Amino acid sequence: MVLSKISSQSDVSVHSTFASRYVRESLPRYRMPDNSIPKEAAFQIINDELMLDGRPRLNLASFVTTWMEPECDKLIMDALNKNYVDMDEYPVTTELQNRCVNMIAHLFNAPLGESEAAVGVGTVGSSEAIMLAGLAFKRKWQNKRRALGLPCDKPNIVTGANVQVCWEKFARYFEVELKEVKLTEGYYVMDPEKAVEMVDENTICVAAILGSTLNGEFEDVKKLNDLLTEKNRVTGWDTPIHVDAASGGFIAPFLWPELEWDFRLPLVKSINVSGHKYGLVYAGVGWAIWRSKDDLPDELIFHINYLGADQPTFTLNFSKGSSQIIAQYYQLIRLGHEGYRNVMENCHQNAMFLREGLERTGRFEIVSKEIGVPLVAFSLKDNSRHDEFEIAEMLRSYGWIVPAYTMPADAQHITVLRVVIREDFSRTLAERLVLDVTKVLHELDNLPVRLHAKSTAVVEEAAAAVVVAAGEGGSGRVNGTFLKKTEIETQREITTYWKKFVANKKKNNKNTIC
Amino acid sequence: MVLSKISSQSDVSVHSTFASRYVRESLPRYRMPDNSIPKEAAFQIINDELMLDGRPRLNLASFVTTWMEPECDKLIMDALNKNYVDMDEYPVTTELQNRCVNMIAHLFNAPLGESEAAVGVGTVGSSEAIMLAGLAFKRKWQNKRRALGLPCDKPNIVTGANVQVCWEKFARYFEVELKEVKLTEGYYVMDPEKAVEMVDENTICVAAILGSTLNGEFEDVKKLNDLLTEKNRVTGWDTPIHVDAASGGFIAPFLWPELEWDFRLPLVKSINVSGHKYGLVYAGVGWAIWRSKDDLPDELIFHINYLGADQPTFTLNFSKGSSQIIAQYYQLIRLGHEGYRNVMENCHENAMFLREGLERTGRFEIVSKEIGVPLVAFSLKDNSRHDEFEIAEMLRSYGWIVPAYTMPADAQHITVLRVVIREDFSRTLAERLVLDVTKVLHELDNLPVRLHAKSTAVVEEAAAAVVVAAGEGGSGRVNGTFLKKTEIETQREITTYWKKFVANKKKNNKNTIC
């Protein structure tokens, strides 16, 4: 006789994950659950929900590295439980960081003696690096003004309007006025002449960008240096330059080594670069490098005991993982100049191929430059019937994430699509993208009613939004009135709401590209 | 006839890693090499050098998590190439962050309505969280003072002298005066009465610590709240409280849920907690939670477009990995209240076991409390012959990393050893540690000459240090003179140098514990 076991008696641990009750029950979203669940179930639940995130490799919106060699993945994994800040316990990791700083400082032509150590720190990214550099400029300026008995309560910083949002953040958090040089149509980077005009005695530094986030163009740092040197000579000030080389810092030295943008220019006192962009490391590493010890006020430095030796630190964070530092060191020694040059050449070639492919469609204006960060920024020659946002949206259904955004103030009537060419964006993918863009253009041409169809499709959503907005205002009456309006009035209201919404969306988009 | 191939003709790629020339040649340490090397060689070189780092699991100096379940390791690995800041591309990751914020806010008894969203952000660690919280207090205080037409150029913050270095950093970088309540012997946390006495109209907040870094003791936040409420009533100010619960935030709610230290106290406006300490996630995640929207000035918030919806952000960093956020979510739903309670109870039990074991030796004074963060801080009853630094050093040769440090100002004659009990420090390891400490004590007792032997052993090192120091001063003459001195003079000089060096080491140590 066979005795069959009834299911409730069987041990829960033998259930396969998808046969367990954990995938059937809803998890509390905003409170910690009372009881534990098996680790396999927790893994599966989270893993499966994350399937709905975009695919990082197809994200053409971002410079940030999405692929590394498996060997490096292993090093990263092994270092997950190592705290970067425990320098006394993990001296080798600290040493690797110091080596990276020195390698990058040399790459940027820091004027170092043969056995002189470079001055710089590893950061979480360029945002932290920029805040540290800005803080150093601010403190140096304050100390100088105080020594001269002059007021030091109105510091300002001069940048182009094309800077990334972190400069605005630095300005707001550290109470420095941000003076932006406006852009003009067809000229989307900071004009050195206008910038130098804006410099006054309260300017803590002029920030130039090597690789504007909007179109990848390199700003003319050499000209800025020359003009500013002249102004400093005339006025007696010594306004310095910071170069935000977040994206271009690992490109220019390999593709255009003769281009002078770094410490070869005497007024450049500090440079930041993102290790996680063309430094070819996953998100979470940046570098701030100073020209010399004198450019980093001592009072900002905290000293940590490192194997009985003194390790100066300058950071806004404290405990963090060591993986990214180790990964950066891996890339620097694995690739060397040769490897980085080859990677950057590939990126540049693929960018040129994509550029040509898009030009061949005859429908796009290319706004990125051939010399610059390998990206292609392009806008429709004629966007009267369909605009760049529609193209971006339709490309999503093909799997591509290509952002569309408007240019900043004074050029905001220009909308561009931007495709970033990373190391892992091969020729095959570039060909495929050109093909898909062509398909999308074709679709748009053959669907003249699409605009209408789309606008009615959004009516529902927008209406819901209006209702929600009214509801949030706490006024049920607005909601009530709204329902009594004629259909045309309603449609008009919705259109207005929608336009405002899209405008906001575009506005929000502009500065937060990474 | 067999034709043998000469070795130089064989393809380099067939060589085993340790047979290749890359492990034979010295890599440039401070400059990028010109050529690439194979990835296997790069992996091996770095991996092997890292063997010389301490073992994270045996690092008893730090609260920071060194072990997670393999399922979570896998989630972390899969998310390595996901940029946390790309909220539009990775909406699920953003959602998981928001869920974590809500779970933690509820855990801290934030006064939230049923469907009200909590206010908080994920950070790289408690340092970033504290800077954000401090900045919010500063800006709120400035706005209030400006509205009243009062000066707002002399903000200060009141804390105990036992705070972690990041408070000092916040004060220095954001130009706020740090007013420290001094400690006294036998009382190593902030005295609420003294703290409230120090509060004036320029105080932006009083910062209390839940789990003092030095001995794990919880400060009496309830008493502070009561005293400050009274002072606010009398003076008409409304000085708020911040709780730095970096280490205790995930302990108190599970072990002593009735202890009132969090948003149950009306003056507590913000709390920070390290996800990478008892939140049980690897280094790189912290949380800042505000009581309500009103406690976070709007002007500090930057808005990011998140799937067409507005996602407010408040951070000093920008691009960073998503792994830690996902790992935190994993722990919260995997463990639930039940799991966290069990883990914390285990830690506490093991701490009590270790405490008893150390007390049984009869040689130690325990300075940590039974209620507090699970750590054991202890000092020698008699350190006239051998001190705590010697014990720490000798424990290293057994593989243990146990730090010794002196207490801050006004209690600096006390030296303590501190063992942090993490989740992965099991009873077996605790037993082993007691055994090894006993052995070390025995060794020290039976080697009365050891102190002498040690001092001669360091002579060489210290002499080298003096020479280097002199050399660095650029004065070869000092070096020359030094060589002509008598041996006794030399020994004296070295002893002085060494004492200063050790004193500095102790001083440096005190605040930078994590």
Q: Give, in spatial order, the strands making up the sheet with the most strands of chain A.
A: 1-7-6-5-4-2-3
- What does the main sheet of chain A amount to? 7 strands, mixed
Mean pLDDT of chain A: 85
Of all chain pairs, the largest interface belongs to: A-B, 119 and 120 residues
Q: Which overall shape of chain A is indicated by the principal axes computed on the Cα atoms?
A: globular
N- and C-termini, Cα separation of chain A: 69 Å
Overall radius of gyration of chain A = 27 Å
Low-confidence stretches of chain A: 449-485, 505-510
Number of helices of chain A: 14
What features would you highlight for this structure?
globular; homodimer; 13% strand; 514 residues; alpha/beta; seven-stranded mixed beta sheet; four-stranded antiparallel beta sheet; 42% helix
How would you characterize the overall build of this protein?
Chain A: Belongs to the group II decarboxylase family. The first copy, chain A, is α/β, with parallel strands linked by helices. Helices cover 42% and strands 13% of the residues of chain A. The first copy, chain A, contains 14 helices and 13 strands. In chain A, strands 1-7-6-5-4-2-3 form a seven-stranded mixed sheet, with helices on both faces. In chain A, strands 10-11-13-12 form a four-stranded antiparallel sheet. In chain A, strand 2, helix 5 (165-173) and strand 3 (177-181) form a beta-alpha-beta unit. The longest helix of chain A is centred in the middle third of the chain and has 38 residues, at 323-360. The radius of gyration of chain A is 27 Å and the shape is globular. Chain A starts with 38 loop residues before the first helix and ends in a 5-residue tail after the last helix. The model of chain A is unreliable at 449-485 and 505-510 (pLDDT under 50). At the A-B interface, helix 1, helix 2, helix 3, helix 4 and helix 5 of A face helix 1, helix 2, helix 3, helix 4 and helix 5 of B.
